[in-house]
Amino acid sequence: MAGNKAVMYMGPGKVEVKDLEYPGLELKEGPGVNPANVGRKTPHGVILRTVATNICGSDQHMVRGRTTAPEGLVLGHEITGEIIEKGNDVEFLQVGDIVSVPFNIACGRCRNCKEGKTGICLNVNPDRPGSAYGYVDMGGWTGGQAEYVMVPYADWNCLKFPDRDQALAKIRDLTMLSDIFPTGYHGCVTAGVGTGSTVYIAGAGPVGLAAAASAHLLGAAVVIVGDLNADRLAQARSFGCETVDVSKGDPKDQIAEILGEPEVDCGVDAVGFEARGHGPGSQQEAPATVLNSLMDITRAGGALGIPGLYVTGDPGAVDDAAKQGSLSIRLGLGWAKSHAFTTGQCPVMRYNRQLMMAILHDRVQIAKAVNAEVIPLEDAPRGYQEFDKGAAKKYVLNPNGLIPAA
Ligand SMILES: NC(=O)c1ccc[n+]([C@@H]2O[C@H](COP(=O)([O-])OP(=O)(O)OC[C@H]3O[C@@H](n4cnc5c(N)ncnc54)[C@H](O)[C@@H]3O)[C@@H](O)[C@H]2O)c1
Ligand SMILES: [Zn+2]
Ligand SMILES: [Zn+2]
Question: What cofactor is this protein dependent on (predicted)?
Answer without folding.
Answer: Zn(2+)
